[in-house]
Amino acid sequence: MVAGFDSERLDRLRAVVQADVDRGRYHGAVIRLARGGEVGFHEAIGFGDAAHARPLATDSVFSIFSGTKALINVLVLRAVELGWFALTDRMSDIVPEFTGAPRDRATIFHFLTHTTGMPGVWEPRAGGTYDRLADAVTAVCELIPGAVEPGTRCDYSPMANHVLLAEALRRRDPAGRDIRRIVQEDLLDPLGMVDTGLGLRPELRERHIVPDLRGVVPITHRSHENDDPQGLFVAERNEATWVGASSTAADLGRLVDMLNGEGTLEGARVLAPPTIRLARTTWTGDMPNELYRTVALRAGYAVPPASLGLGFNLRGSGIPVHQMGTLTSPSTFGNYGAGSVLFWVDPELDLTFVALTAGLLPQAENIARFQQLSDLAVGAAQ
C-alpha cells in the first residue's frame, strides 16, 4: 500500500492508460492522486505527441483549456468573502456596458452557475483575437445577447461568463491590478503554484506540451504575439481567463488539495470552509446542461442533470454517465478542460484526482475515458 492506495489497483490504472496509448486513443497522460494531501500516485505515461517522439514527464506543462475557469471561480468566491461584490450583485452594475434585458438581470450567482440566460457561444465572432481582456469584454457585451430569463436554463458558457467574472474582479480590485496580477498574487503565489499562469513563461517552454487539437475544437485561439491560428497556447502572455492558463499536475494538485482542505493549504488560506461547502452544493436543480444534453443525445445515453455548484461541476446524486466517475461520492466537485483535462476532489473519500492528457478526444469519448479513470482512482483508494 502507498499513502492510502492499493498498489495492485494503481498498477491497473497505469495499465489502462498505457493500453489507451498503445492503441492510439490518445498520446499520453500525467496523473496525480492524493489522499489527505499525501501523494500516492504521480506518474507520466506515454507521450506528448502523435509521433510518440516526446515522452511525457511528471513536470510536463499542459495548456489546461477551460480548467482555467477554476482559477477565476476561486478568485470570485474569494472576492465575495472580501466584500468586493456579492453573489446577488448584477453584473450590469459592475460592468455597465453589459446592458440589455434579460441578460442585464444576471447576477454573479448566475454567472458561476452558467444560468445567465445567454447561449453557449464559443467565440463572439469567428476568427477574432481575444487574448486581451478588454477586447474580450467588448466583444461579449456587444455580440452575445440574452436568450432567456436568468436562472431558467443552464447553458455552459465556453467564454462569456469567465470574461465578465474576470472583469468584475479587475474593476472591483482595491489595488487596481490587471487580471494576470490578481491571479498571480492572490492565488498562484499563496498556493505555491510555480508553473501555472495565463500564458507560457519562457523558462517553461521546453516542458510545454503543445496541444494536439485533432480537429476536436473547431475554433481558433489567436494571439497578438504570433500568427498561429492556435497561437494563444504558445504565447508568453494572455488574459484569456476562460481558456488561457498552462499548468502541471503538481500545481493543479496543490489547487485541489486546497479545496479538499476547505480553503487552506499549508497555512495559506484562500477561502473559508463555509464558502467551499456552499460552492460544492448543487444549485441548478433538475435542469440539464444544454451543451451536455446534446452530447448525451448524440451518444445515446440518458441526459444527466447539470449538477453545478458555484463555479464547480459536481458528480451529484444518481448514477449518470459522468467524467467524475460513478464510484465517487455525490459531493465530488471539480473542473475540466476541452477533451484533455480533469481535476476533482472527493471530500468524503479525502481523495483528489488530477489528469492532464495529450491528444484531445471528442466530448462523449472524453467523458467515457475520464469516467473509467475516475472509477479506477476510487477503486485504488485503500
Q: How does this model look, in words?
A:
The protein has 382 residues and is of the alpha+beta class. It is built from eleven helices and twelve strands. It has helices spanning 7-22, 68-82, 91-94, 108-112, 133-143, 160-172, 179-191, 249-260, 273-279, 290-299, 363-380; strands at 28-35, 38-46, 61-63, 197-198, 208-209, 245-247, 264-265, 268-269, 313-314, 333-337, 341-346, 351-358.
Tally of contiguous helical segments = 11
Taking pLDDT < 50 over at least 5 consecutive residues as the criterion, the unreliable ranges are none
**Averaged pLDDT:** 97
Structural class: alpha+beta
Going across the major beta sheet, what is the strand order? 2-1-12-11-10-9
Q: What's the order of the H and E elements?
A: HEEEHHHHHHEEEHEEHHEEEEH
Shape: globular
Task: Kindly state the number of beta strands.
Answer: 12
Instruction: Give the C-alpha Rg.
Output: 19 Å
Could you describe the largest sheet, including whether it forms a barrel?
A: 6 strands, antiparallel
Beta strand %: 5-15%
Level of helix content?
A: 25-40%
Which oligomerization state do the chains in this entry correspond to?
single chain
List the helices and strands and how they pair.
Blueprint: H1 7-22, E1 28-35, E2 38-46, E3 61-63, H2 68-82, H3 91-94, H4 108-112, H5 133-143, H6 160-172, H7 179-191, E4 197-198, E5 208-209, E6 245-247, H8 249-260, E7 264-265, E8 268-269, H9 273-279, H10 290-299, E9 313-314, E10 333-337, E11 341-346, E12 351-358, H11 363-380
Parallel strand pairs: 3-5
Antiparallel strand pairs: 1-2, 1-12, 3-6, 4-6, 7-8, 9-10, 10-11, 11-12
